[in-house]
Amino acid sequence: MRPYLLIYRFILVNVIGFALLAIAALQGWVGDLLAADVTNLVIVIFAVFVVGLVICSQKIVETSLHIDRLKRAAPDRPELTGSYFDGPPELLAEALKSRLFSRIAVVRQFASALVVLGLVGTVIGFIIALSGVTADDAGDVSTVRPMISTLISGMSVALYTTLVGALLGLWLTVNYRILSTGTATLYAEMLTRKWKSLTTIAGPSSAM
Known about the structure:
This protein is mostly helical and 208 residues long. It is built from five helices and no strands.
């Protein structure tokens, strides 16, 4: 793996993502979306996405730098593996995998939360849409226009929040995949280095 490859992938994916977002804003789609969302739930969803993206970026940088340190370091420096390997040798691999992947699980949870918030927006939108419709007023011509307005407003909230939650959830999931791939590489590097150090230590002992 080339140095800082994870970071380059992260930058590329998000440059493309924000470029598409900028195009949508220039086309007026973002403004229309925000104007149609009377609940401001779209803003909440985007804020959650930004927090998740910031956390993901920090972990990608940490993972990338750790991988590069391991690859450049001499084989006789097992201390670079840190405290991930405390415990019985037979449990090292499973303990390491659990520790590493538990560190990045929060990013996956943020991606899932975005989809859930989109679904919550769908439910809220339908509630708003149906709140203006009553059986008693359905036959009154003077109340039809307000009911249609409320119905359209509610459906806009439902559709837009679902769309934003799904798209931002997908965006953050792509970043999580990059982080997950880097974590798997880090896991393999650390495990290989540790087993080599254990073999080196056990070699002289077995020879005696």
